[in-house]
Amino acid sequence: MKHSVLILLSYLLSTATLAAPTHITNVQGYTLSDKEEMVTFTDMVFDGGKVLAIGGGSSLKDTYPDADVIDGKNRILLPGLIDAHGHILGLGETLLAVDVRDIPSAKASAQKVRDYAQKNPDLTWILGGGWNQVLWADNAFPTSEMLDEYIQDRPVWISRVDGHAGWANSKALKIAGVTKDSLDPPGGQIVRDKNGVPTGVLIDNAMNMLVEKIPQDTEQDLQRKLDAAAAHLLSLGITSAHDAGIDYATYQYYIKRSQQLELSMRIYAMIAATDPKLADMLNAGPIHDQYDYLSISSVKVYGDGALGSRGAAMLSAYSDDHENIGLLLTPEKQLKPLFDLIMGNGFQLNIHEIGDRGNRLALDQFEETFSRINGQHLRNRVEHAQVIDVTDIPRFKTLEIIPSMQPTHATSDMNMAKDRIGEARLKGAYAWQTFEEQGSIIPFGSDFPVELANPFFGLHAAVTRQNRNNQPEGGWIKEEAVTVEQAFKGFTYSGAYAAHQENSIGTLSSGKWADFILIDQDIFTINPQDIWKTKVLETWVGGVKRYDSALND
Question: Where is the signal peptide (predicted)?
Answer without folding.
Answer: 1-19
